[in-house]
Write a structure and sequence with these properties.
Strand content: under 5%
Strand order of the largest sheet: 1-3-2
Shape: globular
Number of helices: 13
Structural class: mainly alpha
Radius of gyration: 18 Å
Number of domains: 2
Amino acid sequence: MSWLKFETTTPDKVEVFELARILGLDPDAVVGKLLRVWAWFDQHTEDGSANVSGILLLDRLAGVVGFCDAMAQVDWLIIEDDTIGLPNFDRHNGHSAKNRLLSAERKRRERDNVAAKSRPNRDKSVTRIEKNRIEKKNTTTLSGKPDAVEILNYLNLKAGKSFRPVDTHIKMIMARLKEPGVTVEGIREMIDSKCAAWLTDDKMGQFLRPQTLFNKSKFANYYDERKNVRGNRDTTAAQLEGGF
């Protein structure tokens, strides 16, 4: 029997109340409708992405016109050209989600333990381990999309994350790379800037993720605001403490 990873804190999350405000619904009703949407993705997709035409079906399933658009406004659904997708699908859905959750929690605790170390020590431990893991993963990654994969790997290294190169992430990054004036180097600088501002902030650190950084409506501002970080990618943890 399939199941969904549903956190007990979900009904109290800010996104739920924002959805309730946007749609004019009771927060508890929003949670029920979210479960129906999440269950559909779990049952009918392999990686949490589907054709954009699925919006009509999901709105009907939720019983609310515009439900998918509202989810996109709070970053709980990605709508990108001809594709829709759930952020972090691989961590929340499917029969192995529980194992992934436990592994992710263990890695989070490990990152917390090394946060107080100097950057050189951190580079010798977590960063090198992450780099080796990512390089190994690249042998089976999506072909023909090296720039987008490189950017996702760079985000993982800088932010201590483990986002997988699934279609939802890669297509979003590729779309941003097609925008006028956007370069791989520029995106790397943007990631450096956001990591410097958010990495040690418990609230903002959760937004160091593809669906936020490469969101179609937010990316331009993040890209334009990036600092001149060339030659400063080895910023120490002590310097990062003066972030957002």
